[in-house]
Design brief:
- This protein has one domain.
- It is an alpha+beta fold.
- The protein has a three-stranded antiparallel sheet with strand order 1-3-2.
Amino acid sequence: MLRHALRLRAVGLEFEPDAFLRDSDLDADPVYRRGDPKWSSRPDGAKWSESGFSVGVSDADFDDLAGQIRDTLDFSGITKPSCGGW
């Protein structure tokens, strides 16, 4: 079960998530690295083709768009939307 209705993902072929997160307050889960197994129960199975992480942005219900937007603005530090109202 997903813990967050809205998540931010950061990924890249040359991305180093551990180095990025070292100086960050983000609570990333999961963190994965290129070449590592996708599933710990299958170490010889599929491998990640890129490195990255996910971070929960909103705990609002899936059907609560206004709550997700509010949480996202709080997460990003934006205090006033520049794209108009909703």
